[in-house]
Design goal:
Helix content: 55-70%
Strand order of the largest sheet: 1-2
Order of helices and strands: HHHEEHHHHHHHHHHHH
Number of strands: 2
Structural class: mainly alpha
Length: about 475
Amino acid sequence: MGKEFSSVDPMYTESAEVTKSFDDDGRIKRTGTLLTASSHIITAVIGSGVLSLAWAIAQLGWVVGPAVLMAFSFITYYTSTLLADSYRYPGPVQGTRNYTYMDVVRAHLGGVKVKLCGLAQYGNLVGITIGYTITASISMEAIKKSNCYHKHGHDAHCSEPTYPFMIIFAAIQIVLCQIPDFHELSWLSIVAAVMSFAYSSIGLGLSIAKVVGGGDKVRTTLTGTTVGVDLSGSDKVWRTFQSIGNIAFAYAYSTVLIEIQDTLKSKPSENKVMKKASFIGVTTTTLFYMLCGCVGYAAFGNDAPGNFLTGFGFYEPFWLIDFANICIAVHLIGAYQVFAQPIFAFVEKSCQKRWPESKFINAEYMPFMGSHGFNTFRLVWRTSYVVVTAVLAMIFPFFNDILGLIGAASFYPLTVYFPIEMHIAQQKIPKYSFNWMWLKILSWSCLVVSLVAAAGSIQGLAEHVKTYKPFKA
């Protein structure tokens, strides 16, 4: 009788098990889904800036304001679908993966454009993390001010320095920054997305209550703030520029789109899931932006504050204002991580490539069973980054104006120019064809918007510098 053989080769079984644990690029199998990707996008896009949209609509009016919101929602969604198709090269489904925005540009375009992309992307990410430190501290301060106004009256002097709150925010980030990479952030993004819905809904509800309740009559117009009544002609121009820029940048999440897509499972294909996530994210964002912006304008009119939760458009119920500001702070804690992780990954991978033998940079320690690995370089570098961004936030509390300038400089290349150019290269669209022409017109139009918004940001920055005093409340 011949020797019996098992119908399943043990070596084959072992190989299959290994294959199940890794993706086609040899990395540990990705587990991201439509839910986690949508959460990342909403966390990145719906910032506390949603509460300042009433001010932006007040500058533009009932006609231009909503039209600008809709226009940029379409532009952002369309270019994000182009960028999602560029994740793999040369094809959007079967090509080689690219892990960062710079990798994508290197694969499709190459040359000096890779360096320009890196400068725009990482400069913008650094600026956003500093801006979030400032914004979160303002929300924390607003909680203390709200209680003060409730106790001592609305005319009481309740100003507080924001620096202690920046230190608290930085201390929290130092702990969270030890999360190894983007793939471990899903739970934090989901919490942050829920927080953004919470404070946006509170702001919307308070605005509706103010409109329905009547009270002081407010003035709204088709063209927004009125020259000679609300402001001068030159101020109208500058504020219009700033408003258009604010709305354009409020939608931008292209700086982290590729990193988000790199967390997704390979089946169904990443580009299809990312397009659905982008649609959910942009549609949700537009709904909240439109409601908060338009209802907020109806509530406050041409005198709409820059932020009606931290700028005290509302004083009561104080406990609800407090809760909303807590939600803003929690959301920004999560959003900081979404924007900081690509910076951490870029620096750490560059250092590992430069010094592959260094134990300080590469050695991973496992202090507890089942825990994340502990890396000395990661601890030192990430802690230093958080401390430096917090110090810069303290030195330049008007950094949001600088952030507007950084946004103006990065919106066009990252959200519009590179996605369009890579789509043209990937699809081999003939020069001067109809598709080529309309893509170029879209690109040039957005360039004009960026230049106009940059001019508005520079003017606002110049005004703040005139009265600037370091470390003053």
